[in-house]
């Protein structure tokens, strides 16, 4: 409780954020296994006592990094928060593509990286899945709105459709990054939208 209270102060929040941001960057590049606490401390400028003030162990730090990754992912696709029309879904996919058209792209999905490295870890894997489900939940909400408006078939399952869309997004991101070619992501998103549109009444 004391650590949580300290983190709510401006200085405490800055310190905690610095640690999480440094860990997020290092884990993105080197993986969790390749990121030691000492490397995080050196990159963040924090002391070991501060580190363990906020995180009891490395797994807690990884959990915070997962939350940070999700926060950044969603911030790069703000249309996902306001999905209420088919045009909004088009905007959402374009926002994803815009990120990967920038110099250095297509980039790997940080959650995908963690899933590949820690997908069998009984402690971390559920946290990655929770992040994906949160991401999916905004798609599900938008599809539910469309169904309620009569713009999606009444027997359509928004949760299942959201999962299918996420599957396309993740597959497209993976191949686009590995091949350094955004067409894989463009095609995956087009397939996702076509699948969703197939459930229009």
TrEMBL record:
Molecular function as annotated in GO: DNA binding
Presence of the UniProt keyword Membrane in the record: no
Family annotation (InterPro entries): Homeodomain-like_sf, HTH_TetR, Tet_transcr_reg_TetR-rel_C_sf, TetR_C
Segments forming domain HTH tetR-type: 13-73
One Pfam family from the record: TetR_C_13
Domain of life: Bacteria
Keywords: DNA-binding, Transcription, Transcription regulation
DNA-binding region of this protein: 36-55
Entry protein name: TetR family transcriptional regulator
Organism: Amycolatopsis vastitatis
């Amino acid at each position: 409780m004391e650590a949580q209270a300290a983190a709510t102060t401006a200085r405490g929040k800055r310190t905690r954020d610095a640690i999480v941001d440094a860990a997020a960057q290092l884990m993105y590049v080197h993986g969790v296994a390749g990121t030691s606490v000492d490397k995080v401390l050196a990159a963040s400028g924090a002391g070991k006592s501060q580190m363990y003030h906020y995180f009891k162990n490395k797994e807690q730090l990884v959990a915070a990094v997962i939350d940070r990754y999700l926060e950044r992912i969603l911030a790069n696709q703000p249309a996902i928060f306001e999905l209420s029309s088919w045009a909004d879904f088009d905007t959402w996919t374009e926002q994803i593509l815009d990120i990967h058209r920038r110099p250095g792209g297509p980039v790997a999905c940080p959650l995908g990286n963690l899933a590949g490295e820690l997908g069998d870890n009984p402690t971390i894997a559920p946290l990655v899945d929770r992040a994906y489900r949160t991401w999916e939940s905004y798609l599900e909400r938008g599809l539910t709105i469309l169904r309620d408006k009569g713009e999606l078939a009444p027997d359509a399952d928004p949760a299942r459709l959201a999962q299918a869309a996420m599957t396309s997004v993740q597959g497209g991101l993976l191949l686009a990054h590995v091949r350094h070619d955004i067409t894989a992501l463009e095609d995956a998103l087009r397939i996702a939208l076509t699948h969703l549109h197939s459930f229009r009444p």
